[in-house]
Design brief:
Elements lengths: L1 H17 L7 H9 L7 H16 L5 E6 L3 E7 L8 E6 L9 E5 L4 E5 L2 H16 L1
């Protein structure tokens, strides 16, 4: 019987070592989880918002959404608020291949362009728009 108790206690101690002990309040744990989420830099966001402003002023776009996750951040542009996004500019933070850092993804989910530089993608979007107007 003593052996069983000892094994039972040993398992319980082992179990307690693996369990998660939460101390403090929920606000602190929420703040710690926010540190894992990455975002656009200030310059990148300025470039993206200036592109969006040109699209809104020309009447092509109406709404946008920003999604920030652990491994990627995306800026989605909508023609109408109730539709799927026309395209998404996505920054992959954990990309092993540096050329896949920035991507443009279409409404259908197809990857239109990828590059290591945001300015190259903006230039691509401007050229594409000019060719559509002609």
């Amino acid at each position: 019987m003593a052996e069983i108790r000892y094994l039972y206690r040993h398992q319980r101690i082992y179990f307690m070592k693996k369990s998660l002990v939460v101390s403090g309040n929920a606000y602190l744990s929420e703040e710690k989880s926010k540190k894992d989420i990455r975002f656009f830099t200030k310059d990148e966001l300025n470039i993206i918002l200036s592109l969006y402003a040109r699209g809104v002023s020309s009447g092509d776009w109406k709404d946008y959404a920003i999604d920030a996750l652990k491994d990627k951040t995306s800026f989605s542009i909508y023609k109408h608020a109730s539709e799927m996004p026309v395209f998404r500019l996505t920054k992959n933070h954990k990309s092993k291949n540096i050329k896949e850092r920035w991507k443009i993804i279409s409404m259908s989910g197809q990857e239109l362009k990828r590059n290591k530089n945001l300015n190259a993608l903006i230039k691509f979007l401007n050229q594409k728009k000019l060719s559509l107007v002609k």
